[in-house]
Amino acid sequence: MIEYPNINPVALHITDAFQIRWYGIMYLVGFVACWLAARIRTKSLPGWESPERLNDLLFYTAMGVVLGGRIGYMLFYAMPDWLEDPLQLFKIWQGGMSFHGGLLGVIISTALFARHQQYPFWVIGDIIAPTVPLAIATGRLGNFINGELWGKVTDVPWAMVFPQAGFLPRHPFPLYAIALEGGLLFMLVWLYSSKQRHVGAVSGIFLLGYGVIRIFEEFFRQPDPQYGYFAFGWLTMGQILCLPMILFGLYLLLKPRQQPYEFCKV
């Protein structure tokens, strides 16, 4: 068993009302990493020579991630708490962000950006998709520091005792997510995007890859107590939400929308 590194989730305590938490810092690091990766992706794309358009895109997508992620969490995982205390929506520093809600938020914000810029939506999606795993990795690191999203009880040598989950050793699920949703998915989508693909294909491989990885990961994660398992004794909310992602990802991969679009080689 490996000892859980009990890190103070508060990085800087100024007053009880004003604290800077590692969870928020991790999101900021993720946004910066996405911007840098997207800059590499767009360095030879017509209309993206200046970083101004990319800066605007980052603003739109950041708003989509934060608003969509929080609203999605409250809708998918904490509706009773939200109904009891509507102000729970704004307590982001406590954790509680949904990837699937954030994804919907990014889709909406990207659609607004594409309309405003009069630029093809799926081309923008293919710019963003390879960078997203970087933000996922930093977000999962924030979960780990918060001591949340622990896994099922296990006796594997690398098990950890999460302070908020009792005294039994568990799978360190956030670390699995950092390695798989972050590292593995980043390499998969980044390498796939390094060659010429039809518009939408890069977005498709991201959706497909994330959906498959997340369904696999959920077998090691403690299910949300308010829901448990939905069907067959193993199907969780996270797995259910990944099924449409997989189907739509396959659609984008198998049904080209346009002729190939020349991205920069990375």
From TrEMBL:
<keyword id="KW-1003">Cell membrane</keyword>
<keyword id="KW-0472">Membrane</keyword>
<keyword id="KW-0449">Lipoprotein</keyword>
<feature type="binding site">
    <location>
        <position position="140"/>
    </location>
    <ligand>
        <name>a 1,2-diacyl-sn-glycero-3-phospho-(1'-sn-glycerol)</name>
    </ligand>
</feature>
<keyword id="KW-0812">Transmembrane</keyword>
<feature type="transmembrane region" description="Helical">
    <location>
        <begin position="20"/>
        <end position="38"/>
    </location>
</feature>
<keyword id="KW-1133">Transmembrane helix</keyword>
<dbReference type="GO" id="GO:0042158">
    <property type="term" value="P:lipoprotein biosynthetic process"/>
</dbReference>
<dbReference type="GO" id="GO:0008961">
    <property type="term" value="F:phosphatidylglycerol-prolipoprotein diacylglyceryl transferase activity"/>
</dbReference>
<dbReference type="InterPro" id="IPR001640">
    <property type="entry name" value="Lgt"/>
</dbReference>
<protein>
    <recommendedName>
        <fullName>Phosphatidylglycerol--prolipoprotein diacylglyceryl transferase</fullName>
        <ecNumber>2.5.1.145</ecNumber>
    </recommendedName>
</protein>
<comment type="function">
    <text>Catalyzes the transfer of the diacylglyceryl group from phosphatidylglycerol to the sulfhydryl group of the N-terminal cysteine of a prolipoprotein, the first step in the formation of mature lipoproteins.</text>
</comment>
<feature type="transmembrane region" description="Helical">
    <location>
        <begin position="121"/>
        <end position="141"/>
    </location>
</feature>
<feature type="transmembrane region" description="Helical">
    <location>
        <begin position="228"/>
        <end position="254"/>
    </location>
</feature>
<comment type="pathway">
    <text>Protein modification; lipoprotein biosynthesis (diacylglyceryl transfer).</text>
</comment>
<feature type="transmembrane region" description="Helical">
    <location>
        <begin position="58"/>
        <end position="80"/>
    </location>
</feature>
<dbReference type="GO" id="GO:0005886">
    <property type="term" value="C:plasma membrane"/>
</dbReference>
<feature type="transmembrane region" description="Helical">
    <location>
        <begin position="199"/>
        <end position="216"/>
    </location>
</feature>
<keyword id="KW-0328">Glycosyltransferase</keyword>
<dbReference type="Pfam" id="PF01790">
    <property type="entry name" value="LGT"/>
</dbReference>
<feature type="transmembrane region" description="Helical">
    <location>
        <begin position="173"/>
        <end position="192"/>
    </location>
</feature>
<feature type="transmembrane region" description="Helical">
    <location>
        <begin position="92"/>
        <end position="114"/>
    </location>
</feature>
<keyword id="KW-0808">Transferase</keyword>
<comment type="similarity">
    <text>Belongs to the Lgt family.</text>
</comment>
